[in-house]
User: Which sequence fits this backbone?
């Protein structure tokens, strides 16, 4: 008796789950409303999300991702820590899985990130190396990873967050592993190795707090100007981990225009708008207006090629870990239901020519 009822409950649950999945997958079709992906595609724009690889096992996660986005990036799987269990060994299992997913679903794939002072393998960060040895490891890493992914990854964050937060000069971080062992020219070296490894790939310098007009974005500007003069960089990534309420404005426009004059493209690479918990309808509306302002801004600047969010569902976001008391930073809720922010993005994409 108990077993029968238990079975019935399970079956009913499974049935309802399947119906839910189907309804969610068909949400756009049924209402005749185009998805973000379709709208972006029509405008030659890229809308993307970071992927938490363990969640790729979840059908609802996979379906939402491929339905709504024409670009993806791994949240952690392409980082050196994940790829290099040992100096003489690469583990491409997760990378290959995401490459296959992107290919099957006709999505562009960004590579994040080749050189960073965080999420490095312990054998490297704890080892004792000469400058030449460290440069050799960096070159081998960049070359092997880029060539492994050639034709599958269209753009790379070659160097991530190299510039220090210490104003007014914001030097290349003096305390980073790469600066200590190689010297500040490690940034240029990384771009040289990347250009040689895959001349077709679009090469990005990626950082946070560089979207405005201030001393840090000035330091980023000067760095990419030097690199661009040598033909080593193509684009700048503005991460944009921001607090809800923020809006894109005149400073971002001036910054985008000065980068355009250098011949550099931009992508918003890690957008999220954190809300201070608990969530209320009013806070969700404020968040929607923040997302709207960024989409409107992106579509108004010809050199902005993509808007990528650091995830898409509040079920999986690094925000609560890094910002205590904050969360709900993405455009789908934990049940994969679109939030007001999703609707705001859709409205802006619909309005755009
Ligand atoms: O989302 C990533 C998280 O899972 C990792 O624990 C963390 C390690 O620092 O990195 C997060 O992603 C970061 C990205 O690689 C670079 N910009 C900041 C992102 C959020 O912290």
Assistant:
């Amino acid at each position: 008796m108990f077993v029968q009822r238990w079975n019935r409950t399970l079956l009913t649950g499974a049935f309802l789950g399947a119906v839910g999945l189907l309804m969610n997958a068909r949400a756009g079709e049924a209402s005749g409303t185009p998805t973000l992906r379709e709208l972006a595609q029509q405008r030659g724009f890229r809308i993307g999300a970071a992927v938490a690889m363990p969640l790729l096992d979840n059908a609802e996660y996979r379906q939402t991702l491929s339905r709504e986005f024409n670009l993806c990036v791994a949240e952690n799987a392409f980082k050196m820590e994940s790829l290099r269990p040992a100096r003489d060994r690469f583990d491409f299992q997760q990378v290959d899985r995401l490459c296959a997913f992107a290919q099957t679903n006709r999505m562009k794939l960004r590579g994040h990130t080749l050189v960073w002072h965080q999420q490095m393998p312990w054998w490297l960060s704890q080892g004792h190396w000469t400058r030449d040895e460290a440069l050799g490891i960096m070159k081998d890493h960049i070359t092997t990873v880029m060539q492994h992914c050639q034709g599958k990854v269209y753009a790379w964050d070659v160097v991530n967050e190299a510039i220090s937060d210490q104003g007014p000069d914001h030097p290349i971080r003096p305390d980073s592993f790469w600066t200590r062992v190689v010297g500040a020219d490690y940034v240029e070296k990384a771009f040289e190795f990347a250009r040689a490894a895959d001349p077709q790939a679009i090469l990005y310098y990626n950082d946070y707090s560089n979207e405005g007009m201030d001393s840090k974005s000035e330091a980023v500007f000067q760095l990419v100007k030097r690199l661009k003069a040598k033909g080593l960089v193509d684009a700048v990534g503005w991460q944009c981990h921001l607090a809800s309420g923020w809006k894109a404005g005149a400073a971002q426009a001036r910054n985008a225009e000065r980068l355009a004059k250098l011949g550099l493209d931009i992508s918003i690479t890690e957008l999220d708008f954190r809300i201070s918990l608990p969530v209320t309808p009013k806070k969700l509306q404020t968040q929607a207006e923040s997302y709207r302002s960024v989409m409107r801004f992106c579509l108004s600047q010809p050199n902005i090629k993509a808007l990528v969010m650091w995830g898409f569902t509040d079920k999986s976001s690094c925000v609560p870990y890094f910002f205590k008391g904050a969360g709900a930073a993405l455009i789908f809720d934990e049940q994969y239901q679109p939030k007001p922010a999703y609707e705001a993005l859709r409205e802006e994409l619909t309005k755009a020519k």
